[in-house]
Amino acid sequence: MRSLESVQAVIKAYDVRGLVGEQLDEPFVRDVGAAFAALMRGEGAIRVVIGHDMRDSSPALSAAFAEGVQAQGLDVITIGLASTDELYFASGILECPGAMFTASHNPAAYNGIKLCRAGAKPVGQETGLARISQQVADGVPAYDGAPGAVSERDVLPEYGEYLRGLVDLSGTRALTVAVDAGNGMGGYTVPTVLGALGQLSIRPLFFELDGSFPNHEANPLDPKNLVDLQRFVVEQGADIGLAFDGDADRCFVVDERGEPVSPSAVTALVAERELKRSPGATVIHNLITSKAVPEIIRENGGTPVRTRVGHSFIKATMAETGAVFGGEHSAHYYFRDFWGADSGMLAALHVLAALGEQDLPLSQLMAWYDRYAASGEINSTVADQTERTEAVLADFAVEIAGTDRLDGVTVELASGAWFNLRASNTEPLLRLNVEAATPDEVAALTGRILAVVRA
């Protein structure tokens, strides 16, 4: 028996994640597999597809999970090494639930599981993880039927062909593309997906699969992890740089000067392209993306819908609204044509197509979509998140044009600038994002807000 508290420390709101050997071991994930299979069998599933990343612990943990699934009478299809969006693809085409073993951008000592229903539909705390936690703590009831069988399938070629079928690059100009895989799964998927496009000359950086991440963390959201790619783009004379996180479901973009491209600008560009294919469609964006995103969606005849931060909210709203596309400031990009799931590779194909369809360098192309200056997300450790938030609101009281509390508090100022303060759910942190017309205004607002937050 395990305590529910210890189980819930690993089975979190949206996925399973913990330190290998301490929180996550083969008996534990075997029970998670059994509980997941029992839940899915109750919903009519007959098989589960399983993939894993390049971490040393992933093959053994995924095999143990498969044993738990088989013990509950469900068949297992293993796809071996995969990116997370490749696993979502497999769940979509095979119409079965899936499990991806990865800790994404977390350090080498961690591993985890991302679970989904058939068609890559998410499994979160309220849609299955709470029940799985309880069963893992109490003990999963034995299944009295025959165990399931296991088979293998390589879906990587189909995945690449499917993505290339969604974005037409046939008429684009030749491009030199620098790609930093961060020793993660992009090093496995990029050669198949992008390497098949003859007009692209791929310049690889850190493509060797290595779950110890010897060069830098596989987390391009942190600016320090983009430095190698920025330098490499300039050295190679590349037209564009792409950086993938550990499980390659997020993609960050660097222009020909080695300057990072805002994920908000990428969201706006892809939204514009998708609205040309689906006029009048809905596009989702979270509340931290630039206000340029809803502006550009409206300019292109679409309907913008704003959500809280987090993939579960984006995916739920995608399903409710039938949105054609959704984007987050963290470089997660969601597509109706990809079962509503996120795919950094598909977003990369859109950016490559947009760049290759015209003659401007990427920096000039993206200037249209990057209309405002932004601070990026800044974290502050505070003892009382609510008290510090209210202190900021008091400081700006006479300048506030409007507020909302969809996720934390978003403040619209009379100047046209805005900021958002959100409390972390798991740490004593306040997260700040600021956007204004100029970098100087952003710097002034950021300094003023942080002086109150950190007082």
UniProtKB/TrEMBL annotation:
Pfam families: PGM_PMM_I (PF02878), PGM_PMM_II (PF02879), PGM_PMM_III (PF02880), PGM_PMM_IV (PF00408)
InterPro entries (UniProt xref): A-D-PHexomutase_a/b/a-I (IPR005844), A-D-PHexomutase_a/b/a-I/II/III (IPR016055), A-D-PHexomutase_a/b/a-II (IPR005845), A-D-PHexomutase_a/b/a-III (IPR005846), A-D-PHexomutase_C (IPR005843), A-D-PHexomutase_C_sf (IPR036900), Alpha-D-phosphohexomutase_SF (IPR005841)
Superkingdom of origin: Bacteria
CDD domains the UniProt entry points to: PMM_PGM
Positions of the Alpha-D-phosphohexomutase C-terminal domain: 377-449
Coiled coil feature spans: none
Alpha-D-phosphohexomutase alpha/beta/alpha domain boundaries: 11-136, 159-258, 265-372
The entry's keywords: Isomerase, Magnesium, Metal-binding, Phosphoprotein
Cofactor (UniProt): Mg(2+)
Homology family: Belongs to the phosphohexose mutase family.
PANTHER family, alphabetized: PHOSPHOMANNOMUTASE
Cited NCBIfam families: PRK09542.1
Protein name: Phosphomannomutase/phosphoglucomutase
Natural source organism: Tsukamurella soli
